[in-house]
Amino acid sequence: MSLGDKDTVKAFWANVAGKEEQIGCDAVSRMLTVYPQTKTYFSHWKDLRPGSAPVRKHGATVMTAVTDAVSKIDDLTGGLLSLSELHAFTLRVDPANFKVLAHNLLVVLATVFPNDFTPEVHVAMDKFLAAVACALSEKYR
Amino acid sequence: MVVWTDFERTAIQDIFSKIDYAVVGQAAFSRCLIVYPWTKRYFGGFGNLYNAAAITSNPRVASHGKVIMEALEKAVKDMDNIKATYAELSALHSEKLQVDPDNFMLLGHCLTIVVASQLGKAFTPEVHAAFQKFLAVVVSSLRKQYY
């Protein structure tokens, strides 16, 4: 990511403040509904429907982590080390799914911020989420 | 054989009846060229695609965006025969244009994002799923003639 990309991400992400739960819940709901193969990772949840309690809670967890990643944008690999270990050794999520969640998050951002989510913001966010996915994949092998 | 539920049929036809093809086509196609710049390789004859501002104001990008939407409309009008509808277009993309078929879903992603920003809350997860299924069928049909 260029300096410009990082600035764009930080500036845009400031809009998210206060809406983390709503956005996170919607992104996870969409991922489970639109890409049902992702449900295989959540068979331990009682309720996988859009907006359910476990979905809402997990959406908040994900958004807290992404917000944290924004603050660590200059060293994602170092900053996301323990999360990478979690995903690699405990959760064992196929890293291809990171792209899936990222896409659904971008769709939600487009619905919530139709005017601010310009093509320039879109490309910067896409690059950022790809970098986050890469950092999360670090410890896999 | 693709099986569409009544909900899916209605959702997709509803989306296409609500959107302005010129606006959405231009927005989705230009977004694709901006967010996934390697897709510019197929549009060498389109003039200035140097940066986001140039792409957004490029008239050939705008008109081609509309062409894409009109082609998608053909599938919406005959949802049970999408493979047959796109047989010729598939051969065109494979033999003449030589487009890497992995690019089709990149445009699909951008179209989803533009439709989402237009419809807002109305683009529920269920409607989103129907739209994604439609795009997957379109992409699969466009891939059919590649060998």
UniProtKB/TrEMBL annotation, chain A:
Coiled-coil spans in chain: none
GO cellular component term of the entry, any: hemoglobin complex
Domain of life: Eukaryota
GO MF, one annotated term: haptoglobin binding
Alphabetical list of PROSITE patterns matching this protein: GLOBIN
CDD domains linked: Hb-alpha-like
Pfam families: Globin
Globin domain location: 1-141
InterPro entries in alphabetical order: Globin, Globin-like_sf, Globin/Proto, Hemoglobin_a-typ, Hemoglobin_oxygen_transport
Family that this chain belongs to: Belongs to the globin family.
Protein name (database record): Hemoglobin embryonic subunit alpha-like
Organism from which the protein derives: Haplochromis burtoni (Burton's mouthbrooder)
TrEMBL record, chain B:
Metal-binding as UniProt keyword: yes
Domain Globin: 3-147
GO terms for MF: haptoglobin binding; heme binding; metal ion binding; organic acid binding; oxygen binding; oxygen carrier activity; peroxidase activity
GO cellular component term, pick one: haptoglobin-hemoglobin complex
UniProt-listed GO biological process terms: hydrogen peroxide catabolic process
InterPro entries: Globin (IPR000971), Globin-like_sf (IPR009050), Globin/Proto (IPR012292), Hemoglobin_b (IPR002337), Hemoglobin_oxygen_transport (IPR050056)
Keyword rRNA-binding belongs to the record: no
Keywords: Heme, Iron, Metal-binding, Oxygen transport, Transport
Protein family (similarity comment): Belongs to the globin family.
Name under which the protein is recorded: Hemoglobin subunit epsilon 1
Natural source organism: Haplochromis burtoni (Burton's mouthbrooder)
